[in-house]
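Case study 2.
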Amino acid sequence: MPEDDPGPICTQPAQPERPSEQRHRHTFTGATPERLAASLSLATVASDAGGLLEVSSDLTSFGIGHSFPTGISIRNALLVIEASWNGQPLAQIDGPTIPFYGSDEVPGAQPGDYAGMPGKGYAKVLEGRINGQGPVVRPVLFIDAEGVYDNTLLSAGTTDTVTVRFQLPPQAKPGDLVEVTSRLLYRRSWRALAVTKGWTETPQGGPIEIESHRNDLEVVLIEGGGGSVIDIPTLGSLGLGVLALLLGWVGFLALRRR
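Prediction:
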């Protein structure tokens, strides 16, 4: 912990003065954009092959002595990966998707809803019966927890690699640009809980959601999407009949020449 100013280490009377190197601040700053940026790193690479675009993001915890995110179980984080060609979002065909807690419970897609999108969620999801009654639901607070539904917290000093693949359209050509975005969002609350409660900031005035890291890439396609699809003409019933007559006539002439 950082050193504090010289002074006593407690408020009891007649305490000796301590030098600054013996007094340390016990302030818990918490998750701020600056602290998150200084404790985690996000690196993303992307390339195409076989008509697919592969995107890999490495999330590394190097400056935190505990799992990320931590604290009360409503804390969670989302790694959101998106790709587009000519402004057209690319469809994911492989890789993990963001869990249910990435969206609220309001019908329809709202801004800030990410469940089902390419990426991953980081959280410890508790489940249980409310007040010990009724069906098992998730997520719940620790007071109602009877088990852990999922635990994807990022351990201290580790790197988690998330790889997703997108389908390139057939019209995508070598040399075309594909825009890729990978973002890490830290949420102090489950999305559904924050929307239901109308929470937009913490009691201290901080944001409920923090975009702590963002990678923007422009990927030059090497192979593209395999070229345009060419329609091969087919014969109708009349054409097939004419073809049969021609083949028959050719066969007849061949027999006469023998």
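The domain at 32-229 is CATH 2.60.40 (Immunoglobulin-like).
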